[in-house]
Specification:
The protein contains twelve helices and ten strands. It is α+β, with helices and mostly antiparallel strands. The model has no long low-confidence stretch (mean pLDDT about 95). Helices cover about 40% and strands about 20% of the residues. The chain has helices at about 1-15, 20-30, 35-40, 45-85, 105-120, 135, 145-150, 175-185, 225-240, 290-295, 315-320, 335-340, and strands at about 125, 130, 170, 190-200, 210-220, 245-250, 255-265, 275, 280-290, 305-310. It binds phenylalanine (PHE).
Length: about 350
């Protein structure tokens, strides 16, 4: 029995794989295995002999079975270790690149402008793109037959036959949102309104739809100096460099006095560079809100005053990112969008950079 025990335990320990182990199991404790045959011999023994040999054989059988089971687990572990050593996965590898869309420069620049002006305390307001002629013109001190109505190349909406009310218009500027905001919130007020505007015009620097951001600040002691400070701070933050501005006396029906604002730039080699050189580029209209406009907004001009400005967003994008032709903004050309577009993760913030 000791010989059997030594023989099988040694062989089991040395078994190289599960097939060898199975062979050993059959040879030892299978139906015709050596241990099984020994057990059959028990029948021929005297009861005394059997009492000694029986438990010993059972113990041997148990010992071999548990050696087989332990070896089986050990072989499985070894097989797994070998696989793990051979097949491995680098979970730190960057994921495969997938084609994705980009953020349009107009969207990006709108976010940039909003981040800067929001930091100066301007809340964002919105208004409809299809406006009544009252909000787009009359309330802004542009009465019927005023030349500004035709100068703006307005798109008029159609009216049903027999409907003689004045037609709605596609808003020609974001200024009607000044009136809507004053009516909704009264004074004091400090808002900006970014959005789409429409004029029938088309060339390298004009498209029938483009974008403006309106600014409006009304309080008891607001002056042109505040307007100038806000705009200069704004341009410096936006372009990331000190930008000189030039205020030119101008005329808008809705502001008095009015100023068109130019920013300093150079035009060398067909390239426009902001913040250097001795050239000037017009980028916005502004002024002190006309008393009639305050009245239209339901605000008493004897008590309140303020400034307003309207910046062309598309032009700001062209200037900052060196985009030469405005028309391409709206062509939906994928090559253009991939080149000039921004990653969705490049969210403009004051602390993260613009
Ligand atoms: N609404 C003017 C335009 O579209 C810009 C402007 C806004 C001027 C506010 C003065 C004040 O040209």
């Amino acid at each position: 029995m000791d010989d059997l025990r030594d023989k099988y335990l040694t062989a089991i320990a040395a078994a190289a794989d599960e097939a060898a182990l199975e062979e050993l199991r059959l040879a030892a404790v299978g139906k015709k295995g050596e241990v099984s045959l020994q057990m059959r011999e028990l029948g021929r023994m005297t009861p005394e002999e059997r009492q000694v040999a029986g438990p010993k054989l059972n113990a041997l059988k148990d010992e071999i079975n548990s050696a087989l089971a332990a070896k089986k687990v050990a072989l499985e572990d070894a097989a797994l270790d070998a696989r793990l050593a051979e097949e491995w996965l680098d979970v730190t590898l960057p994921a495969r690149d997938r084609p994705r869309g980009t953020i349009h420069p107009v969207s990006q620049v709108t976010e940039e402008i909003t981040a800067i002006l929001a930091d100066m305390g301007f809340a964002v307001a919105e208004g409809p793109q299809v406006e009544t002629d009252w909000y787009n013109f009359d309330a802004l001190n542009i009465p019927d037959h005023h030349p500004a109505r035709t100068e703006m190349d307005t798109f008029y909406m159609a009216r049903a036959d027999g409907d003689n009310r004045p037609p709605h218009v596609l808003r020609t500027h974001t200024s009607p949102v000044q009136i809507r905001s004053m009516q909704a919130h009264g004074a004091p007020i400090r808002i900006i309104c970014p959005g789409r505007v429409y004029r029938a015009d088309y060339d390298q620097t004009h498209t029938p739809m483009f974008h403006q951001v309106e600014g409006l600040a009304i309080d008891k002691d607001i002056s042109m100096a505040n307007l100038k400070w806000v705009l200069e701070e704004f341009f410096s933050a936006y372009f990331g460099t000190k930008v000189k501005t030039r205020f030119r006396a101008s005329h808008f029906p809705f502001t008095e006095p009015s100023a068109e604002v130019d920013i300093q730039c150079s035009f060398e080699g067909g390239q426009v560079k902001v913040g250097e050189g001795d050239g000037w580029l017009e980028v916005l209209g502004s002024g002190m809100v006309h008393p009639k406009v305050l009245e239209a907004g339901g605000i008493d001009p004897a008590e309140w005053q303020g400034f307003a400005f309207g910046i062309g967003i598309d032009r700001m994008a062209m200037l900052k990112y060196g985009i030469p032709d405005l028309r391409a903004f709206f062509d939906s050309d994928l090559r253009w969008l991939r080149h000039y577009g921004f990653s969705a993760l490049q969210v403009p913030t004051l602390h993260g950079g613009l």
